[in-house]
Design a protein that fits this description.
single chain; alpha/beta; TIM Barrel; 9-stranded mixed beta sheet; 6 helices; 28% helix
Length: 229
């Protein structure tokens, strides 16, 4: 009992003292995945080991502000909404992301994590909904896909493919045919904004009878490429 209590105290202390580098925290509408349309607080962490060709958040690669986990959680709570999305960059590149996710869940919030899938997700709190972005060839980062992550997805998680053209679309369909997904994992196909017309991708999905859900980035339809929206 004493060892368990000491372990719990150590974990609590580590969470209180953990610091993470944050690019921005803002309130908007969730523009993607299963929670689309909900007022959501976005916590964008700084840093990313990938360099996707079509990345639209390069401003998060460096800089940011160092904050304690408790301060981030309180900032999120002060917005007064239930949904929070931890994103980047690549949020899992920072060790402090894990205690942040746990603490947000402990506050009773509906927590999602947007990750590239290039880093292990088995360490993520199971209460978190994972949206994993599998990299298609058009991104230039296909070799960073971590195959072991697939088996770690759980019901309610989502596997996202951002596609720049027909080659990416065909690659994604071939990938899906060759891999068995865990039950309850939804597959999302999304066009690269400004590069692949949404209607074209929608037609391809319908013609192929693809077992995927089409999505566009709602926030970009509403506000364009304005950061923090």
């Amino acid at each position: 009992m004493t060892a368990a209590l000491n372990g719990a105290r150590a974990a609590s202390t580590a969470q209180e003292t953990a610091r993470i580098r944050v690019t921005e925290i803002f309130l908007s509408l969730q523009g993607e995945a299963a929670q689309v349309g909900w007022p959501t607080v976005f916590v964008r962490l700084t840093g990313c080991p990938l360099r996707c060709r079509w990345c639209d958040t390069e401003y998060s690669f460096s800089g940011g502000e160092a904050m304690g986990v408790d301060a981030v959680v309180q900032t999120v709570a002060d917005f007064g909404v239930r949904h929070v999305c931890v994103t980047g960059g690549e949020p899992l590149a920072q060790p402090g992301c894990l205690p942040l996710l746990r603490s947000l869940c402990d506050r009773g919030l509906v927590v999602s994590l947007e990750t590239s899938g290039a880093l292990a997700i088995d360490v993520v709190d199971p209460r978190v909904t994972i949206v994993m972005d599998l990299k298609a060839p058009g991104s230039g980062e296909t070799t960073r896909n971590r195959s072991g992550n697939l088996a770690q997805l759980k019901p309610g998680d989502q596997l996202k493919f951002v596609l720049a053209g027909r080659d990416d679309f065909d690659w994604a369909l071939d990938w899906l045919r060759g891999h068995a997904l865990p039950a309850g994992v939804e597959v999302l196909f999304s066009p690269v904004h400004g590069e692949l017309e949404p209607a074209v991708l929608a037609d391809w999905i319908v013609e192929a009878r693809a077992p995927v859900r089409f999505q566009v980035q709602l926030h970009k339809l509403l506000w364009g490429d304005v950061p923090g929206r």
